[in-house]
Amino acid sequence: MTSSVLVIRSRVRRRRGLVVASALVALLVVAVVSLSIGDYPMTLDELWRTLWGGGDRAQAYVLFQVRAPRLVMALLVGASLGAAGALLQSLLRNPLASPDLLGISGGAGVAAVFAILVLGVTGPLLALAAFGGGIVVAAFLLLAGRHRADGGYRLILAGVGVAFLSVAITNFLMVRAQVELAQAALIWLTGSLASTPWWNVVTVLVVVIAATPAVVACARWLPLTQMGAPTAASLGVTSSRVRLVAVLTAVLLTAVTCAFVGPISFIALCAPAIARPLLGHGSVGIGTSAAIGAVLLSAADLVAQFALPGVSVPVGVVTGAVGAVFLLWLLATSKGRQL
């Protein structure tokens, strides 16, 4: 029996290592392409030389002030949304659970739009406003699913309602705002990585680093809570505490990314749904979901920039289109038909 368990664990580790290595290779390819192409193209030799300080001033500016912050932000946001989606889907045991479908992104977006249009807030305070909006929605959803055996499904339905309410409030704020402010808020609501300064990247990076211990802890605790509260308690894990930490971490990651790049849709839904079949052993797969989310968003940003010649669209347009097709496919599968 012990030998069989060791063999299974060895296979799981090898498969996880293969999936992670493949994701890292995909990230490297996307990163090289993102840094090389554009209105000022660079060869691989020029890119390598500029990375190590050997390029001319124009190459250094394009690489370090235009392309690099946009790429790093795409990787951070994609990883954050992938991890947030994995946390919520594992907690609720529902493949449709994600910050955008649960209304958390909508709540964060409403608070951020209110801060932009009414309070004139920008910068770090905008992130705090978005986090507050996400927390309010998360608290409501937790109350809606409390003491219910089918809380996961009730949370999905409640989240859809909150999402529609958020759209209505946002539209009202947009109609009442000045044209210039409304246009800026509309671009933000679409979700865009364009014109990303380094201070935005650093802020998101600090939050991601601060949230990493909680993500690691949830990756260890969530499989235990899925065995049931009595079993988890016998192993020294309090299910209610894990639930609270997982929700707060998911809200924090969603809100801070929403504040700086807007509500990027469907990455949090798609990344865990892709990671689970690749891992193939029922794992929570939070780290793998984060890596796949980074690949998805950085690749989507490439498509947004260069798919249409001479036209650059916000990355939220691409993720929304691809995510809608993915959601329809998910619902059409055998697992989706059981929801």
Automatic annotation (TrEMBL):
Q: Which family does it belong to?
A: Belongs to the binding-protein-dependent transport system permease family. FecCD subfamily.
Read off the PANTHER family from this record.
FERRIC ENTEROBACTIN TRANSPORT SYSTEM PERMEASE PROTEIN (PTHR30472), FERRIC ENTEROBACTIN TRANSPORT SYSTEM PERMEASE PROTEIN FEPG (PTHR30472:SF24)
What superkingdom does the record give? Bacteria
Membrane-spanning residues: 18-38, 71-89, 101-119, 125-143, 155-177, 197-223, 244-274, 286-304, 311-332
Keywords attached to this Swiss-Prot or TrEMBL record, sorted alphabetically, are: Cell membrane, Membrane, Transmembrane, Transmembrane helix, Transport
- From which organism does this entry originate? Microbacterium yannicii
Give the Pfam families listed for this entry: FecCD
Question: What is this protein's name?
Answer: Iron chelate uptake ABC transporter family permease subunit
